[in-house]
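Reading a protein record of the kind used here takes only a little practice. To see the layout at work, look at the sequence and tokens printed below.
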Amino acid sequence: MRHRTAWQALAQTPLKVLGSSWPWRAFAYLLSGVVFGAITTTVLVMMLVAGVVSLIVAVGAVLLLGVALSGIVVTRFERWRLRLVDLDPVPDPHQAPERAGLRGWLYTRLREPATWRELGFTAVSLTALWWMDFLVLGFALVVPVLVMVSPADDPGAWPLLIVGLCLLPAAPYTITAWAGARAAITRLMLAPRDSELGRRLTDVRASRARLVDAFDAERRRIERDLHDGAQQRLVSLNVMLGLARLDAEPGSPLAGQLVDAQEQVTLAVDELRELSRGVHPKALTDHGLAAAVENLATRSALPVTADIRLPRRVPVSVETTAYFVIAEALANTTKHSHATQARVHASS
């Protein structure tokens, strides 16, 4: 079984951890935390001091705003770095800006609880977590080495050498354990809250509804263009061919060619009408789901009884989806079942 986190690997298979990549991944996680923490602390302290000193001018306000929003950058790197010891990604809790441009982005970010929670995590990370990373690495690696390099000619150094030799094999466990604990703290603080996930789910549903409405509107436009454009032209052409056929000599080659042409145009009109129904049936637009399903039933090769009981017309997206679900179900029933009849029932 593949472990998803360093903590899980250490807890479930402690004897196999030394032969795995988890200690090395944990070491890289803590070392990068120390380096990134030291650099970030230096930069943010300088920005904070410069912002307070120059607060009387606009530059100070910009610097302090940068400090307030620094958690977004820091936690984005932390989420990426967390993959070293936790293979499951932490979702980004931020929502899309309500308005385009920098002002819209700032307006959304400054009003989000996630922004201030990330700033709090940044403060905790810079004041405590990366220092703990440094101490754990020092205790696990530096202390055993310093103990072992004690003067060998000193009789009192031999116990220290033994202690160092005992501490060194424990270093991978110490590093992996703290890396797992630190990753759990990071995930706890950075994971989206239920309210944020609910809001994002609402946004996804609204976006999906807009896509469905846009797709349905496009289907209606195509159906209208086919019905009012190409189909009407073919009907007019069919009438003109019929008139030309009346003027032609009966039994002549021209009359036969006109008959063939008229039959081909009739077939083209029928195929175009069928295609138009498949794109968006006109009966559905004009008369609703019940009439459209009745139309389906009359055109089905299988005897179909339609029982649609709706007190009023449902929303267009629901109506369209229901129609095509019924159409597909009837088509599959006709092709793949041995039924002698079918019944469609819908009510609200």
